[in-house]
Recover the amino acids of this structure.
């Protein structure tokens, strides 16, 4: 029996969360885990009551072919990380880990070298989350130390755009 390691176990769950996503460009699934318990989940979707990219049949970022990392406000969705964070109390996220998996909406392929956008990084920092672990392949992942963003991430100053 080939038992899955714990990190990939949580990444598998985050990958399943993606299936509820509604963006036509990229979908992400996020789960927040603390003390080995899942605190909350989040996927990409429009604010409650608003139409999703999938309802409209287009994502404006996709339509305008906005390059990766730019003009996030043109997609109507709330990001997966943001949805997971607003579903939890800060005390339950403090010192926790956010697991994140992204897939291209058209091809279904894993997004390579994905990471939180600058707006989500700000929220991750304020949520008190310690680490963000992002899936690269079904078995490989990158671990981001949130402290590293606090100390060294210039994109958080807004000087490099989003
Ligand atoms: Zn979209
Ligand atoms: Zn984001």
């Amino acid at each position: 029996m080939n038992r899955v390691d714990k990190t990939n176990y949580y990444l598998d769950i985050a990958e399943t969360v993606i299936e509820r996503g509604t963006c036509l460009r990229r979908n992400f699934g996020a789960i927040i885990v603390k003390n080995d318990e899942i605190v909350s989940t989040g996927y990409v979707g429009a604010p409650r009551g608003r139409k999703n990219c999938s309802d409209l049949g287009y994502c404006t970022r996709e339509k305008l072919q906005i390059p990766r990392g730019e003009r996030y406000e043109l997609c109507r969705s709330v990001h997966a990380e943001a949805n997971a964070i607003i579903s939890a109390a800060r005390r339950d996220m403090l010192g926790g880990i956010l697991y994140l998996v992204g897939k291209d909406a058209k091809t279904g392929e894993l997004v390579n070298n994905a990471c939180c956008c600058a707006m989500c990084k700000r929220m991750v920092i304020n949520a008190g989350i310690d680490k963000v672990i992002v899936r690269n392949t079904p078995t490989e992942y990158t671990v981001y130390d949130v402290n590293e963003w606090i100390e060294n991430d210039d994109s958080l100053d807004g000087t490099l755009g989003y």
The mean pLDDT is 93. DSSP finds seven helices and five strands in the chain.
